[in-house]
Amino acid sequence: MPRSLCSRPSSTPASRRGFLYGLGATLGSVALTDLLAADAAQSASASPLAVKSPMHRPKAKNVIMLFMEGGPGQMDTFDPKPELSRLHKTESNLTGGLEKGFKFFVGSPFKFRRVGQSGIDMCDQWVHLADPFVADELCNFRGCQAESLNHPEALFHMNTGSRLGGDPAIGAWATYGLGSENQNLPGYVVMTELALPQGGATNWSNGFLPAHFQGTRLRPEGTPLLDLQAPAHKSREHQRRALDELQWLNQQHLASAPAIQSDLESRMESYELAFRMQTSVPDVIDLGRETAATHRAYGLDQPETETFGRQCLMARRLVENGVRFVQIFSGGWDSHDYLQRGHSARIRSVDKPMAALIADLKRRGMLDDTLVMWTGEFGRTPDNNKRGGVYSLGRGHNNHAMTMLLAGGGVRGGTTVGATDELGSHAVECVHPIRDLHVTLLHLLGLDDNKLTYFHAGRYKQLSQFGGQVIDELIA
């Protein structure tokens, strides 16, 4: 049955002390105290991450977002531009971008071919993704346009819907709207390289949503979560008694200070989740349970693919165990110079793991309801600056054109949606801003961006900021 999720922050039922606390502010806060108590009466017994019904029939129930930080070049990956190759090293007449001065066109160093029965375009560096079993599941969207040319702002925008940072990430919105299918695991998990993406944890923040919905980062080296194993001298029973005592103390604090209610409740729930995770997480992250053939398929036996391959395999295991939203960040795509060397190395590092992930989900019958997305924060320019009298074969930042891949989860596999001009400078067909992409992702999950709102700073807020439209051409 359709529903709307327009919520204010949760609250404990109003006590006499809490009511008097509200009198210390304004008449508006007195009225709000009553409204908060009414909201709390409906949800006090439910876990913040309890499964919620979708607002309409969903096509996907999980998302795995593969984020290529730095901005892959669309004309060097999935959007061939023969005219750009013809103009290679000739003077550019394009304007815009961050850099000024003499510019020249840069043709792609890679050759392109059509792969699979669908004939999707792909540069020759993609070897494993070109397998028809995988390629025919891909939807290549070329019509998206970003707003910012700066990495941090563009990253925030793609991840949270806002260029300013501080708003909830899309994974936080998804878990807020749908909850988590496994109460012993986080609903939203993030994996990065050792170096965090620009903007750091702001990219997977809960923002103004309760802290239950923030992304949980798994470390790339060592134990994925610190303190996952309890000290040898502490039994489960001892931990349980300590948590019960702490819970009682926090409840007393909460009764006397309702203003900190949301943060304190979130902290209390995080302690309980951490306790449950100590028994659930080790099994989920134990890749030793997978076969040697699976390890090889994901590239765990090769240094250049081991890190991303391990994360992709982990992502499959996480969604298999009920995690709602998984993000993996892969850096190094900001190729202002040495384009051929940089992009070929980055493609090799993700090609085999990506193909293995999609193929693995497909064989297990999970791809139908798991949406896999490959994207960066923006695209690249067809030209570059000549620096110090030397032709620098790279590309600048481009917020007018980019390419991204989607697979599974109700999208149209084996299709190319939208187009860029003959140089790859601007999207010219099926052009949509990032907010429309976000609205579409929520729609595939069974959520309506206009109804998935949260009251903050005097108004109801939503992922798209001020609304958007579903990109129907992407949906099967």
From TrEMBL:
Pfam families: DUF1501 (PF07394). SUPFAM superfamilies: Alkaline phosphatase-like (SSF53649). Gene3D superfamilies: Alkaline Phosphatase, subunit A. PROSITE patterns: TAT. It comes from the Bacteria. PANTHER family: BLL7424 PROTEIN (PTHR43737), DUF1501 DOMAIN-CONTAINING PROTEIN (PTHR43737:SF1). This is Sulfatase. It comes from Crateriforma conspicua. The lineage of its organism: Bacteria, Pseudomonadati, Planctomycetota, Planctomycetia, Planctomycetales.
